[in-house]
Queue: 2 jobs
Job 1
Amino acid sequence: MQIETSKSLQPFNTFGIRATAAYYVAIEDVPALQLFLKSDYPEPDNMLVLGGGSNLLFTGDFDGLVLHMLNKGIEIISEDENGIEVRVQAGEVWDDFVTWCTERNLYGVENLVAIPGSVGAAPVQNIGAYGAEVKDVIASVDTVTIEDGDLRTLTAAACGFGYRSSIFKRELRGRAIITSVVFRLQKSGVLNTGYGDVQKMLSERGITDPRPADIAAVIRSIRSAKLPDPAITGNAGSFFKNPVIGEVEAKALRASHPGLPCWPQPDGTVKLAAGWLIEQCRLKGFRMGNAAVHDRQALVLVNAGGATGYEVMALANHIIKTVWLQFGIRLEPEVNIL
Ligand code: EPU
């Protein structure tokens, strides 16, 4: 395997930020990755496993080693009358896999359509949208341990999934590389149409008995109306997490801000809409240098053209400060900042 030096990372991050990697290796298959990790490669202090590059922000050049996961393949490993189990290589494009499923009328990932990124990145932050989270269809996750290059499989329970979080963001950060994911998909089931405008748009389209492909088509159009296409405008989806606060605090905030959207969580906490908080601060569409808040979804920051990662961070910090002063809520980035 070839180690490249001073490699441009601009094509590999959806923010379109100009940055280089000191060392870069393209990983086409798992045995090659294992061989590499077991070899005497010059081990840097810093290593980044790169998938679709859709959830990160480079604030400068990366002085370590980038392992770019480009391994492909979708393989059915078991099937019965209820559903299938399928192993998908980490380098597959997530949205292509969703299409693979909806074309076969398989249930489980239709609400997660049009999320940028790779399959290998999906478990890391437990991607979610429109009332669904990827953890609910993951059977297991295959990894290679960086230290010894050995394969290890984690069951879904061992992955410690939470809201936009997993063991891969915590204990296994920098220690394990996700090489493939095993999904369990159903041949029939109940579709989740309760979130946002999904049901409304189905009705408008006259669809009374939707299939997964119908849900995917509807959500794809809702998303494309609200979210910027990274191929045109650099961005990394939601820049901040939706904050989760205590019930008492939420009640007090709601009393002073009656319009505040709140989603009570099973554990008694309350999730707030960060996009709403930012919009209330009149920051929707706000521009600072070459970075801006998207004009149709305040949770998304965009590269308005030639932005540096530093400029995006300056804007993010301005938003954090403004929301803090107005609401006493501290927003946290969802995007990985390097
Ligand atoms: N809102 C505003 N102004 C805005 C944006 C949102 O007032 O500019 C309010 C609206 O009241 C809306 C509420 O916030 O009812 C929620 O907005 P939306 O349904 O658009 O979802 P979100 O909370 O902003 C989350 C995910 C998205 C996911 C959508 C749809 C996070 C951090 N973000 O956004 O995920 O697509 O729900 O389910 O959880 C991503 O992670 O990159 C991402 C795009």
Job 2
Amino acid sequence: MGNTNHPNKLVDKFGRHVDYIRLSVTDRCDFRCVYCMTEDMTFLPRKQILSLEEIYQIAQAFTELGVRKIRLTGGEPLVRTDVMSLVERLGVLPGLEELLLTTNGAQLDKYASALKAAGVNRVNISIDSLDADRFKRISRVGKLDKVLTGIDAAIAAGFDRIRLNAVIMQGYNEDEVIALADYAIARGIDIAFIEEMPLGEASDHNREDTTCSNDWVRSIIEAKYGLENSDDTTAGPSRYAEIAGKKSRIGFISPVTHNFCEDCNRVRVTVEGRLLLCLGNEHSVDLRTILRDESLGMDDLKNTLVAAMDIKPERHYFYDRDHPQPVRLMNMTGG
Ligand code: SAM
Ligand code: SF4
């Protein structure tokens, strides 16, 4: 390695151009959501996780290869010590057009205005119930009022766009589709419904009993509000619909029932520095070894990223129960 012959962009074998990365900044979390992790989750030893400097170097390499959009996720990004120092550096990273964050919202009252000032354009805030007891059942330890205060703080901070994320599950919150949509509509913010994915361990339930299709969720909303499809995809997996006269958009992320792989423009990096070419396949590349090898530099990292595009799989198989699924936890992967 060591040559600088890489093209200035990331294109895979299927002609898809990768210009969006999701970086997991921690596997840790102050919640234990039933669809994401077990109650007695064991987190990674510190030496296995990337330093904030190493995460920054990865972001830099990607932007030099044409990535324009970075989402920080986890785990819960806001529990990482000193995460704001990373956010501030990314906020002024040359070439980066959008810096996004996905959070459970529990600490947004503390961080929202600093995130906005550091250059975060948009935030996604996960909320699966507006009922305090249910919220606790789903998150196992989360407090609803902290998240609601966090959402208010995000609205007050004036991000370009705020989107709520809700995973609707039979037996947990399937009767709250309208309440959650109404909550978003009343505040003029977006909401996306995410189908529960067969990733990691759901120890409290059997996913075959809980997973709700977004066609069903959509039909519930459509019965109250007429929905019109929007062309705006915000270059992610969400398909949006609009409600006449309302500012809020309703998004549907439907990896289980609708395959959206043909226009996939993104890859992920885990907090261990593993580049994941697809959420639903095992294909990955170890970046941490390159970062920690003193004989290698930025060009080696960039060459590795370019070469990795060749193994980006064509699609995932979440909808095929007979197809083996990768053994992954969402907090490790970066949802
Ligand atoms: N802690 C932050 C949060 O909850 O927003 C960021 C990380 S979390 C892994 C990112 C998103 O993934 C959340 O919206 C969460 O609801 C979603 N998620 C986690 N596990 C999931 C699963 N098995 N299926 C579908 N969505 C999942
Ligand atoms: Fe934590 Fe987010 Fe996973 Fe919930 S979904 S346990 S908040 S990482």
